Amino acid sequence: MDNNHKIDRRNIFLATICCREKDRAARLLPAIRRYRSRRIGRIAELAGETGLDLAILSGLYGLIDAEEPIPYYDRLMGEGDIARVTAVNREYLRRRKIDGVIFCLPDPAIDPHVKPYLKSMEGAASAARCGLKVFFLPPYPGPAEVRSAFGREELPANG
């Protein structure tokens, strides 16, 4: 990567997938509060530690900002949803001018339900010409691993 196009905190973000456990409140809630899982909580903490924004890949909405208000829903992404969600994800990446995604999700060898989520992110990143670093959980990456995902010199430690 040349010096004129360094990755910085504004165009790199952390992402993880949604979860089955949700707050069933009838009102809109920020995605980070709607979804109830330790995994999402840990990735949110990691985002805070590294100074990166957090997005959540919803089986219904595609990539959404963690603070995006969403209603309750119950939908698991399936193979038939991949093309639609890939298009939504691609538009999200392009609109935000994202250069790199650090995507943390359960290992598909352990949980095959995550395969469509992974395929949609891979397709979107490829179409948007965006870097993609995937971490299969567990184990959870630490701040140093996240910072070095696209080169240590390009993602400084959060001051």
Question: What layout of secondary structure does this protein have?
Answer:
Elements (H helix, E strand, L loop, with lengths): L11 E6 L11 E2 H4 L3 H13 L2 E6 L3 E4 L3 E2 L11 H14 L4 E7 L8 H13 L3 E7 L5 H5 L12
Parallel strand pairs: 1-3, 1-6, 6-7
Antiparallel strand pairs: 2-5, 3-4
Kindly describe this structure.
With 159 residues, this protein is of the alpha/beta class. It has one domain: Rossmann fold (3-Layer(aba) Sandwich), CATH 3.40.50. Strands 4-3-1-6-7 form a five-stranded mixed sheet. The protein has a two-stranded antiparallel ribbon with strand order 2-5. Strand 6, helix 4 and strand 7 form a beta-alpha-beta unit. It is globular. The N terminus and C terminus are likely disordered.
Output the number of helix runs: 5
Shape type: globular
Largest β-sheet summary: 5 strands, mixed
So, CATH architecture? 3-Layer(aba) Sandwich
* Overall pLDDT: 90
Number of separate structural domains: 1
Oligomeric state of shown chains: single chain
Q: pLDDT below 50 for ≥5 consecutive residues: which ranges?
A: 1-8, 152-159
Order of helices and strands: EEHHEEEHEHEH
CATH topology: Rossmann fold
Largest sheet, order of strands side by side? 4-3-1-6-7
What is Rg? 15 Å
Q: Bin the strand percentage.
A: 15-25%
